[in-house]
Write a structure and sequence with these properties.
By secondary structure, the protein is an alpha/beta fold. It is built from 4 helices and 10 strands; from the N terminus they run αββαββαββαββββ.
């Protein structure tokens, strides 16, 4: 009788172990199927609120940089790089202006891409987010796209990230051709330039 009891216990354990393994696999499959859609999210999903940077060969945006004497050559070059990248990707030439003309806020409602520290309140708001001396931010504030770095290296890094991750431009010979460039309205990317 002891051998029969042992055999029943062993059979019971084998059955439960098999059941437990099957249940574990089913739970794992269900979890993966639940999470799978999140892995495939498209940042240019039409269901998500977005800003249209270019469409139909046109853009409502203007690139704006500081006109002050403290504006660096790097800010100017970043603006040129940005307009070059957008033209390569979408075929649209976006104008570059300085903030000199808007001393009384007449362009507050105009869609703009602000590069570096401009006289727009959105530039100051973005700068407040950065605590590191080498920090940068890429952020949508209302109808403004702000690209700001605490120094020249940080601004260059911010522009590189913006062009590659949001515009689809990695270099002169490596870019995604796309007539429509959309940016998420919730865009708020911060980072830190690290000295190589």
């Amino acid at each position: 009788k002891r051998d029969t009891d042992k055999e029943e216990v062993i059979a019971y354990m084998k059955t439960n172990t098999l059941f437990t393994k099957i249940l574990s696999v089913l739970l794992l499959v269900c979890t993966c199927l639940t999470l799978l859609p999140a892995c495939n999210e498209d940042p240019q999903d039409p269901e998500k609120p977005s800003l249209t940077l270019t469409e139909g060969g046109e853009s409502l945006y203007t690139i704006v940089r500081s006109d002050s004497t403290s504006a660096s050559d790097v800010e100017t070059q970043m603006c040129v790089d940005l307009t070059t990248a957008i033209k390569a990707v979408s075929g649209v030439q976006i104008e570059i202006e300085t903030d000199y003309e808007d001393t009384v806020g007449q362009y507050a409602d105009r869609p703009e891409i602000l590069v570096g520290m401009t006289n727009r309140p959105e530039s100051a708001a973005a700068k407040e987010q950065i605590t590191d001396e080498n920090g940068y931010v890429i952020r949508v504030i209302g109808n403004k796209i702000v690209i700001f770095g605490n120094n020249a290296n940080a601004l260059t890094e911010a522009m590189t990230v913006f062009l590659s991750e949001y515009i689809g431009y990695r270099s002169e010979s490596d870019f995604d051709r796309n007539e429509v460039i959309l940016l998420p309205e919730s865009l708020a990317h911060t980072g830190v330039w690290i000295d190589p």
